[in-house]
Structure formats: C-alpha cells, structure tokens
Amino acid sequence: MFIRKVKLTNFRNFISTSIMVGKGVNFFYGENGSGKTSILEAINYISQARSFRANKNSTIINHEAKEFVLFSELFKESKDFVSRLGIVRNYLGDIKVNFNGVPLNRVADLANNVCIQAIVPNGLSLLEAGPAIRRSFIDWGCFYHFNDFSEISSDFRKIIRQRNILLANKSSKDYLEYWNNCFAEISQRVTEKRVEYLTIFNNYANDITSRFLPNIKISLELVPGHKLGISDFLSQLSSHSGREYAMGYSLFGPQKADLCIKVNNKPSLDILSRGQQKLLVIALKFAQGIVYQNLMNTNCVYIIDDIASELDTNSLYKVYELVDELSDNNQFFITSLDKDHQKFTSKFHNEIKMFHVEHNDIHESDLV
C-alpha cells in the first residue's frame, strides 16, 4: 500500500502535525534537530510498530504527554478505497492498533499492510555489527517471501525458549530429548527458508550493487549456526550437551546464524571505503525491496534518512537515478540537510513533493 496521509500527535516534539504526502518521492529538508528523522521514524512505526533509533517507547512520547498517537491513510494503486490505520502507545509500552475500525490483535500484522524498507545512518551496522542484525536482514526478506515463515519463526521461538528453560534448570536428558527433536526439526525449516531466500536474493543484490560499485562481485553466504540435516544436528546437540547444561542455554541453532558478506571473495570491511560500504548497504536494501515488489506485485515504501551522508556527488547521482526509476511503482521518503538536491531531482520524471521542516513544523515547499 501507498501512504497518503500521516498525522503525528505527541510523537517526539510534534504536538499535532498532519501532512498529505505524494505517491512518488517525498523530500524533507531542514537543519539538524528540526524533526526530519522523527517523520521517518513515525512512518516506520506504521509498518513495524517500533522505532529504528530508540529502544524505549517512552523516549518517543512527547515529554508533556502520556501517550502518542499515529494516524495514517493508506491506499492501493488499483483501488479507490482508502484504508485508515491508527496506533496509540503509552509510556508503559501498551499499544493499541486499529485498522479500518477493527482492532489488530497482532502487531506483526502491520507489516502485511505496508512494506517499509528503512535506509538509515546506522545502516552500516549491517556490515559492522554482530550477527543479530544480519539475521534480521535475512528474516525481513523471508517474512515477505514465504507465507509460512512468520509461523515457523514463532514456533522456533517457543521451542528454543522451552529448551533453554530445561537447560537452565538442569532437567533430565530424557526430558530434554523430546525438545531436542522438536528443536532440530524447526531449526532445519528456518535454515532451509533462509538458504532458499538468499539463493534468490543473491542475483538481485549483484545487479543493484554493480550499478553503484562497478567491477566488484559480492557474495552472500549463510553461516547456519548448526550442522545441516536433522540427524547431524541431533548428534551435535548430544555431543555438546555438557557445555549447554553448563551455560544454561542453546549454543547451536538458527539463533546463532550469520550472513557472510564478501566482496571479490574477501570480507567487505577489508575492501571497501566508508562511502563504498554505505553504497553496498543501500544496494542490498534496494535489492530486498525489488525482490518484494516482484514477488508480491505491489509497492514498497522506502525511507532514506540523511541520504547525502558519506556519499560523494557521483555516488549520489547513481542513488537518485535508481530512486527515480523505482518511484514508478514505489514510494519514497527522503531527508537531507538542504534543498540543494534539486540538481539531482530536477530530471525526475515522476511525482516529487518537497517539504521544509523547521522547529518541528512541516510546510510543503516549491520545487524551485
């Protein structure tokens, strides 16, 4: 779905702000601290019900309020009907979600309404940080690519939680054996989905990366975190049961998986400059959105915060060129410090709306 309207109430420093956005590219400019990133944060919340920059919901609520409210109007290109989504979250973390007048019992269902791909300044953590963020990257794609992945992931979390309780409580091996079998079976299913998705994704990733970084070849390989095959994994669990009992949690499984990202057969961090690393992350994010678009035959919503950070002029031209191409069927929300990016956007052939953000106030601006 595309976003048509966003209203923020007591969301960070926005007391009550409403904006009508465009179907193509929406560009927000203003000084640091003006509230640009908060707008993208609110849009991300529409799909994920969480922030990409804050761990505590209490920090998102305006300091003079006890809750924030987000309201959005959504639409599909092929339909005139407008859907309405409301989210209320208080300082205790309690959340209420309403879609077209009906409460949503599962926050995860938000992602089925709006697919948002976030490209934010801390995105380099995909290359630099630990395995958890790369697992999340893979699972984002699996969630949209496989109808049953959400259920498989939920079952996996329940089973490993139970298994970890047994290990922590030093329960008998006979009792643990049943859960080992469950754990091995569900782990195999998670890993199979991840491998299948990466097989598809690799080609898209190389196609987009080659546009930004010619003459390099990237490879994405899953390090599964356990031995493949149910019987081999069960043998691995059996041979390391002493260590797991001592630690009190599962040492092997998909929760230990990692994504190995190589450039010309070498670790990407050893080959690429800082700017090239950002281009690679942007390429991978775009590639994921394109895979989703082709699979679902519907649009993706991209949010790009501080697009110019660490990119030279030539690199920016390449990114904006792809943005223009993708905005045929996708929606973009982009922030930057200034309005000078018109030299990049002046040749856009699709709709573009410009917004000036100043002191947490948003005004639509002329393109010239």
UniProtKB/TrEMBL annotation:
Protein's UniProt keywords contain DNA repair: yes
Protein residues bound to ATP: 30-37
RecF/RecN/SMC N-terminal domain ranges (all copies): 2-358
Molecular function in Gene Ontology: ATP binding; single-stranded DNA binding
UniProt-annotated location(s): Cytoplasm
Keywords: ATP-binding, Cytoplasm, DNA damage, DNA repair, DNA replication, DNA-binding, Nucleotide-binding, SOS response
Main location: cytoplasm
GO CC aspect terms: cytoplasm
Entry superkingdom: Bacteria
GO BP annotation list: DNA replication; DNA synthesis involved in DNA repair; double-strand break repair; SOS response
Its biological purpose: The RecF protein is involved in DNA metabolism; it is required for DNA replication and normal SOS inducibility. RecF binds preferentially to single-stranded, linear DNA. It also seems to bind ATP.
Family of this protein: Belongs to the RecF family.
NCBIfam families in alphabetical order: recf (TIGR00611)
Family annotation (PANTHER family): DNA REPLICATION AND REPAIR PROTEIN RECF
Name under which the protein is recorded: DNA replication and repair protein RecF
Organism field: Ruminobacter amylophilus
Organism lineage string: Bacteria, Pseudomonadati, Pseudomonadota, Gammaproteobacteria, Aeromonadales
GN (gene name): recF
